[in-house]
């Protein structure tokens, strides 16, 4: 478990980092918190020729309140996200999710942007980004572009991020409803067998609008649109409709059918809890 | 109550006191000296190429590119080692019919598990060695894997080792009493099948070895992370054709072992062979990925069991059929027969039932070898017995506690010989069970459970009674020809300043052996503990002994320390008597002084030491001070000192998700004399956690091709603090009369009993749904499957 040999660079500006990325081509990898990359290197699952350490890029740091919500720099550590008063006020879903991300040591190093770019289908933050309608700011050789979180996540470890691009920040609208967050993992800190991140707008004890995103079930964080729409009818209707939203994939802890079952349980529990809380 | 222990049970005695471990501070400060911390001049590092297939023939192996890689000292294959060692065979003569083929350090022509070492790269660093491993060109011809135990034993199955004829590694049948008759006449028969997954012991410090051969004086020094340094010395001498005097084994700090570090591993043997070949020190430290496919695995049983009972709840007969898989080889030198042997020996052993039948079949497979891991066989025997008892109680409409009360061996019935032939000196099952019930407030919990059930909250209460095998005598291994010592020694020396250096054959792996020894020695010599220096783990410094395994450290090593300290005390008093012109019998030791009967200080131990070593001129004529004493101890009366106890688990089951929340766990155990309650309780708690690991989390998941699917710490679920309940521990002390100390072992009771208590609690929670789970680990998946959900 020793990493294969690679070269290492620590640029001080985003432009320099983008140049290194372009010059090196396919062999380059960005390293931020390293919480997924370093184990992959040590297991020799990846053999990059150049590691570009982006921890020195000031452009990628900070959490700021904006007119419509918040802006989170890609280098924001999970721990900082969880401790931010701005995050707790504007996007409480993110604050609720942070304690479920692995363990404290990992939260101290791992980054928000790293988690999004890694796109693990069982990770919390990609699901939160989709649920909150985040827009991801991406820098590339041709300048900046913005991609909706919904379009960013494409599959297991697959995103819309080009090989020559760097995720800079996420612009996240203020959360429009009560937080829905539940996760089932065999042990505290493990990747979810099934998880639900979302929000629900309530009129007294009636859900008027909701966004439900499931993680750990499919090949990526999935927005359950049919189930959300059916919530207006009943919880039972939403649970049934969920079957149309999900295409679960089995893992070592659960069959596809079990994931489907657990997702329904999470949906019922999260929505019932939101309603109870509102009442 | 505890019988008085005159020799050490005195004012200021440390016996029975929760003394913290002095060495814990050093380890916490990061000042441990593990094998990987050693840096010797000219040290080279070893990395192994391991077979990626469960079963494959080696067609070709090209090491040319690897040999030329930067930093590579040598690439070693089986050809390089041929003739330089004697292969080892994991059989013992007292296990009749046990068979296993000779095992080698590196694969010659056929690999039989995914992870078997094939070639070794020796390089200037581990990273360079791994780089070169990737350059070895190898061609395999895949052969059919043999993963399923039943398939391996089925008629017509192709033998994994043609020369052995079939895949039955070992079998044992027990038929005691009149089993058929008892079943025929029974009022009630319960029957169930159980399965236990293969899992492994995950040590914080992986297996590590540094072998250093000095060709100038022909001496081999091996630093290794092991539980049994003298055994390893014997094995290295024997298999590498070295004189006993030429081998030294040193075990410094050892970061956990659990039975993992007491076996002969091909990669360890290859590392020693390489040191001998190269004449320079080489080190191999297993990384976590290779630990999962090269450390021994454990368990993997399928058991069909039946119990016959009379209407009044008397267990009339018990019958089990155990199939277990041990991988391609029986592990050397302890053999892989012991786990299954203990399952059939221990099942039902704490109940009065005299009619018992057991059939054990141990199968070869193409998975890593399985063998002794903490609480060998116990979790299986206890889970099966106690699950059947709960089923029987339900069938008869009795409370599960009541059924146990009616069948446990009475506390006044000892000595007792079980149907399987095990001898119990004196146990306390009835007292332990009653104490457990009080401790947990059994009736109160039952009321709470009933009330919560009405609110659709499903909690379960599980009870398990059990025995634990500790302090094995020579009939365990030595009798069968293994170089495994059942005795242990302790050598004590009074130093000039009045302190004592104490070398013991038992070893420290983090459980507190050194503290325990120091407590006993300090108590016997009337010294403060900080005046005792305990030395362990070095075959050139410690008396010959078996080491630490089978919960023998305190019961055997502690008794040797006590006897050694009493012998040293006699020597000191002889000398002091001569110096003081007093009868030695009228003197005693207390507080670092020689005192008279009234406790008056006569002369300090520092003064005795100084006179003996530097001022012999002041001693009376003819006096030759002898301030070193050694004593050895081995149990002779009983083959094992059995202990007993009872455990209970209280948990909540989420019937929609299948998730289990452990709420509380209780243990009452009787390990005889408790020398250090803190250490005993931590042994029990750690043991319970490992037991819960097996019951709920740990499983080496193999696919049909024999590939391990979860060989990382992200996927293999070791039990973590977040999921563990509070564990309440209480003691009953029934000292063994065989030793003066009276201590039995405590290292495995937690692991042996916990899975049974947890499985019973899960099934108690499931009772309203009329379903049961009988496969461990009890994952959410298995719970939901039982409930017909998901």
Question: Can you describe this structure?
Answer:
The complex is a heterodimer of chains A (279) and B (790). Chain A is built from twelve helices and 14 strands. With 279 residues, chain A is an alpha+beta fold. Chain A has three domains: 47 residues, Uridine Diphospho-n-acetylenolpyruvylglucosamine Reductase, domain 2 (2-Layer Sandwich); 116 residues, Uridine Diphospho-n-acetylenolpyruvylglucosamine Reductase, domain 3 (2-Layer Sandwich); 101 residues, Enolase-like, domain 1. With 790 residues, chain B is an alpha+beta fold. In chain B, β27, α18 and β28 form a beta-alpha-beta unit.
Oligomer class = heterodimer
**The CATH class of the largest domain in chain B:** Alpha Beta
CATH fold label of the largest domain in chain B = Aldehyde Oxidoreductase, domain 4
Q: Kindly name the structural category of chain B.
A: alpha+beta
Structurally, the number of domains of chain B stands at: 3
CATH superfamily of the largest domain in chain B, by name, is Aldehyde oxidase/xanthine dehydrogenase, molybdopterin binding domain
Kindly provide the radius of gyration of chain A, computed on alpha-carbon positions and rounded to a whole number of angstroms.
19 Å
Quick recap of the structure?
Chain A has 279 residues and is an alpha+beta fold. In chain A, 36% of the residues lie in helices and 26% in strands. Chain A has twelve helices and 14 strands.
List the helices and strands and how they pair.
The complex is a heterodimer of chains A (279) and B (790).
Chain A (H helix, E strand, L loop, with lengths): L6 E3 L4 H11 L3 E4 L5 H6 L7 E4 L9 E3 L3 E5 L4 H6 L1 H6 L1 H6 L6 H6 L2 H7 L5 H8 L3 E6 L2 E6 H4 E3 L2 E2 L6 E8 L4 E7 L9 E10 L2 E10 L6 E2 L1 H6 L4 H11 L10 H23 L1
Helix pairs in contact in A: 11-12
Chain B lengths: L21 H7 L15 E7 L5 E7 L1 H5 L3 E5 L1 H4 L28 E2 L5 E7 L2 H8 L3 E6 L6 H5 L14 E9 L2 H7 L2 E13 L7 E7 L4 E6 L4 H11 L7 E4 L15 H13 L3 E4 L2 H7 L2 E13 L5 E11 L12 H9 L9 E8 L14 H19 L3 H8 L8 E2 L5 E2 L4 H12 L1 H13 L3 E13 L17 E7 L5 E5 L8 H13 L6 E4 L17 H28 L6 E4 L2 E4 L4 E4 H9 L14 E6 L7 E13 L6 E11 L6 H21 L28 E6 L17 H18 L8 E2 L3 H8 L3
Parallel strand pairs in B: 1-12, 8-29, 10-11, 14-15, 20-21, 27-28
Antiparallel strand pairs in B: 1-5, 2-4, 2-6, 3-5, 7-15, 8-13, 9-10, 9-12, 13-14, 16-17, 18-26, 19-20, 19-25, 22-23, 23-24, 26-27
Helix pairs in contact in B: 10-11, 11-12, 11-19, 13-14, 15-16, 18-19
């Amino acid at each position: 478990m020793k990493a294969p040999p690679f070269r290492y660079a620590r640029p001080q500006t985003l432009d320099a980092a983008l140049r290194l990325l372009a010059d090196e081509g396919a062999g380059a990898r960005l390293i931020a918190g390293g919480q997924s990359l370093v184990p992959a290197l040590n297991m020799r699952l990846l053999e990059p020729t150049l590691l570009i350490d982006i921890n020195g890029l000031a452009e990628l740091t900070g959490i700021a309140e904006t007119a419509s919500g918040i802006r989170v720099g890609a280098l924001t550590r999970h721990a900082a996200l969880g401790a931010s008063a701005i995050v707790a006020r504007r996007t409480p879903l993110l604050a609720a999710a942070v304690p479920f991300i692995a363990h404290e040591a990992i939260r101290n190093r791992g980054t928000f942007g790293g988690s999004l770019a890694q796109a693990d289908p069982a990770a919390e933050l990609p699901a939160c980004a989709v649920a909150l309608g985040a827009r991801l700011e991406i820098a590339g050789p041709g300048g900046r572009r913005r991609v909706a979180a919904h379009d960013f996540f494409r599959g297991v470890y697959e995103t819309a991020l080009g090989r020559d691009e760097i995720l800079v920040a996420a612009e996240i609208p203020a959360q429009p409803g009560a937080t829905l967050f539940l996760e089932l993992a065999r042990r505290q800190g493990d990747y979810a067998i099934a998880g639900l991140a979302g929000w629900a707008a309530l009129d007294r004890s009636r859900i008027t609008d909701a966004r439900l995103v499931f993680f750990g079930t499919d090949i990526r964080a999935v927005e359950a649109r049919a189930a959300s729409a059916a919530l207006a009818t009943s919880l039972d209707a939403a649970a049934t409709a969920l079957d149309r939203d999900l295409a679960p994939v089995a893992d070592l802890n659960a069959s596809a059918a079990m994931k489907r079952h657990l997702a329904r349980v999470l949906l019922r529990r999260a929505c019932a809890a939101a309603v109870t809380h509102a009442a | 109550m505890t019988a008085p222990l005159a020799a050490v049970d005195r004012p200021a005695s440390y016996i029975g006191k929760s003394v913290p471990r002095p060495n814990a501070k050093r380890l916490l400060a990061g000042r441990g000296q593990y094998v990987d911390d050693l840096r010797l001049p000219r040290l080279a590092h070893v990395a192994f190429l391991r077979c990626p297939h469960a079963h494959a023939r080696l067609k070709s192996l090209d090491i040319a590119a690897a040999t030329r890689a930067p930093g590579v000292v040598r690439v070693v294959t089986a050809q390089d080692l041929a003739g330089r060692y004697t292969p080892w065979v994991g059989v013992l003569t007292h296990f009749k019919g046990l068979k296993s083929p000779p095992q080698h350090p590196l694969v010659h022509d056929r690999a039989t598990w995914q992870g078997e070492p094939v070639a070794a790269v020796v390089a200037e660093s581990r990273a360079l060695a791994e780089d070169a491993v990737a350059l070895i060109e190898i061609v395999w011809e895949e052969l059919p894997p043999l993963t399923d135990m039943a398939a391996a034993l089925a008629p017509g199955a192709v033998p994994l080792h043609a020369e052995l004829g079939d895949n039955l590694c070992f079998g044992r049948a027990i038929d005691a009493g009149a089993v058929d008759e008892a079943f025929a006449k029974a009022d009630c028969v319960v029957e169930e099948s159980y399965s236990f997954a293969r899992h492994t012991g995950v040590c914080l410090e992986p297996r590590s070895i540094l072998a250093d051969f000095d060709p100038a004086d022909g001496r081999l020094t091996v630093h290794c992370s092991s539980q049994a340094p003298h055994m390893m010395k014997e094995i290295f001498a024997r298999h590498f054709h070295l004189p006993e005097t030429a081998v030294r084994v040193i075990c410094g700090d050892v970061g956990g072992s659990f039975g993992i570090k007491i076996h002969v591993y091909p990669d360890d043997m290859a590392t020693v062979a390489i040191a001998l070949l190269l004449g320079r020190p080489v080190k191999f430290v297993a990384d976590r990925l290779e630990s999962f496919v090269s450390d021994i695995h454990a368990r993997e049983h399928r058991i069909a069991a039946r119990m016959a009972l009379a209407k009044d709840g008397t267990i009339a007969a018990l019958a089990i059929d155990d199939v277990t898989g041990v991988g391609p080889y029986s592990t050397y030198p302890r053999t892989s027969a012991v786990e299954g042997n203990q399952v059939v020996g221990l099942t039902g052993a704490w109940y009065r039932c005299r009619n018992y039948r057991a059939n054990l079949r141990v199968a070869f497979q193409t998975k890593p070898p399985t063998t002794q891991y903490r609480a060998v066989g116990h979790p299986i025997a206890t889970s099966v017995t106690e699950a059947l008892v709960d089923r029987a109680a339900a069938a008869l409409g009795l409370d599960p506690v009541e059924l146990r009360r009616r069948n446990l061996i009475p506390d006044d019935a000892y000595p007792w010989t079980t149907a399987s032939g095990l001898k119990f000196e004196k146990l306390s099952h009835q007292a332990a069970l009653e104490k457990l019930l009080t401790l947990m407030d059994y009736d109160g919990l039952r009321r709470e459970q009933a009330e919560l059930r009405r609110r659709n909250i499903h909690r379960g209460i599980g009870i398990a009674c059990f025995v634990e095998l500790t302090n094995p005598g020579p009939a365990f291994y030595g009798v069968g020809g293994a170089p495994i010592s059942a005795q242990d020694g302790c050598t004590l020396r009074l130093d000039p300043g009045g302190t004592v250096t104490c070398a013991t054959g038992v070893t420290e792996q983090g459980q507190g052996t050194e503290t325990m020894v120091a407590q006993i020695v300090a108590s016997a010599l009337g010294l403060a503990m900080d005046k005792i220096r305990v030395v362990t783990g070095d075959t050139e410094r410690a008396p010959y002994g078996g080491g630490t395994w089978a919960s023998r450290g305190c019961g055997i090593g502690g008794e040797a320390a006590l006897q050694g300290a009493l012998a040293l005390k006699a020597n000191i008093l002889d000398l002091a008597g001569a110096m003081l012109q007093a009868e030695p019998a009228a003197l005693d030791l207390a507080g670092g002084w020689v005192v008279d009967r009234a406790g008056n200080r006569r002369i300090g131990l520092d003064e005795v030491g100084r006179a003996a070593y530097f001022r012999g001129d002041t001693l009376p004529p003819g006096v030759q001070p002898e301030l070193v004493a050694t004593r050895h101890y081995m149990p002779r009366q009983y083959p094992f000192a059995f202990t007993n106890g009872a455990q209970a688990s209280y948990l909540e089951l989420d019937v929609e998700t299948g998730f289990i929340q452990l709420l509380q766990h209780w243990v009452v155990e009787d390990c005889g004399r408790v020398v250090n309650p803190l250490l005993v309780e931590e042994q029990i708690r750690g043991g319970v956690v490992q037991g819960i690991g097996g019951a709920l989390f740990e499983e080496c998941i193999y696919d049909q091709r024999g590939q391990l699917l979860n060989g990382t710490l992200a996927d293999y679920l070791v039990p973590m603090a977040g999921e563990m309940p509070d564990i309440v521990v209480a003691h009953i002390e029934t000292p063994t009369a065989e030793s003066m100390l009276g201590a039995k072992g405590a290292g495995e009771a937690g692991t042996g009993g916990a899975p049974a208590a947890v499985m019973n609690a899960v099934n108690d929670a499931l009772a309203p749904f009329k379903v049961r789970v009988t496969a461990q680990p009890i994952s959410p998946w298995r719970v939901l499957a039982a409930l017909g959900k998901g």
